[in-house]
Write a structure and sequence with these properties.
The chain is an alpha+beta fold and 300 residues long. It has eight helices and 15 strands. The chain starts with a strand and ends with a helix.
Length: 300
């Protein structure tokens, strides 16, 4: 692992941050997670767009430019020197006297965590995974908006823990109206007939980068796709179900609450979309390799 704290890159044992940091004390921070394919950082601009959007929602000024942050990310990855890497970028409001007032913070703290990322288990894609419907509801937008990717993640932690206690891969969370929103770290999709459906953002979920890409790929491939609300009953009655995320890509869900989805095996639409997504990854990687190489050499 290589960790970058405010521009200083060290190993995990040397990396440290103040106990008075608001990210530690209050979850007053934002973050993004991505990965590299063959050394190329995936969807960097989209992740930065969402990072700045999260900061805006929290009224949190970011004291580093996008170009400078990109340079620090690529610099840290270069030190790590792994073709396939996990990267997590955290920006906190900063540290200062203990108190809820954001004005008590001095300046942002930047933490970039990188580590070698092993390939995902093949059984995820060959057999599919089992999920549960969590009793823990997704935060309402009027409380802590799920559209903000913040360090306040206890809602998701509680739902994931419930899934682990039941021996499931992960949990699917409902909103206050009983509608499906998302997984704890992923977006949820169903296939009914020839139609592909995912919940709309207004239901209360994070706009996933992979979600956005799958929507674009589907429309370009003439797949009938819509953003439509659905209930747990519709979810369990689907022909196919899958989740998407940056690090997991497209993972079939073959069982929910002990009930088989469709045939109980990964479906043809899920496999087709994962194949199309893989092709998109390759195209993106080929197009960005040179540009990212230049940025990593120029911090200005």
């Amino acid at each position: 692992m290589k960790i970058n704290v405010n521009g200083k890159i060290t190993g995990p044992d040397e990396a440290c941050i103040s106990v008075f940091d608001r990210g530690f004390l209050f979850g007053d921070s934002i973050y993004e997670v991505s990965l590299t394919y063959d050394g190329v950082l995936f969807k960097i601009e989209e992740h930065l767009d969402r990072l700045w959007q999260s900061a805006s929602h929290l009224d949190m000024p970011i004291g580093i430019s996008r170009k400078q942050l990109t340079y620090q990310m690529l610099k840290t990855l270069k030190e790590l020197n792994e073709k396939r890497a996990y990267i997590r970028v955290i920006i906190t409001r900063g540290e200062g006297k203990i108190g809820l007032d954001p004005a008590l913070a001095t300046k942002n703290n930047l933490v970039i965590i990188t580590k070698k990322l092993e390939e995902n288990p093949t059984w995820w894609y060959d057999s599919g995974v089992e999920m549960i419907i969590a009793s823990v509801l997704r935060n309402p937008k009027e409380s802590m908006d799920p559209a903000v990717k913040s360090g306040n993640y206890l809602n998701n932690v509680l739902a994931f823990n419930q899934a682990k206690k039941q021996g499931a891969f992960d949990a699917i969370m409902l909103n206050q109206d009983g509608l499906v929103t998302e997984g704890t770290t992923s977006n949820i999709w169903i296939v009914k007939g020839k139609k592909l459906i995912t919940p709309p953002l207004a239901t209360g979920l994070l706009e996933g980068i992979t979600r956005k890409t799958i929507l674009e790929i589907s429309k370009n491939s003439k797949i009938d796709v819509s953003e439509t609300d659905f209930t747990p009953e519709v979810l369990k009655d689907a022909d196919e179900c899958f989740l998407t995320s940056s690090t997991k890509e497209v993972v079939p869900i073959t069982k929910i609450d002990g009930i088989s989805v469709g045939s109980g095996k990964p479906g043809p639409m899920t496999a087709r979309l994962h194949s199309l997504y893989k092709s998109h990854i390759q195209e993106y990687t080929n197009s960005q390799r040179g540009a990212q190489g230049k940025i990593s050499e120029d911090k200005s």
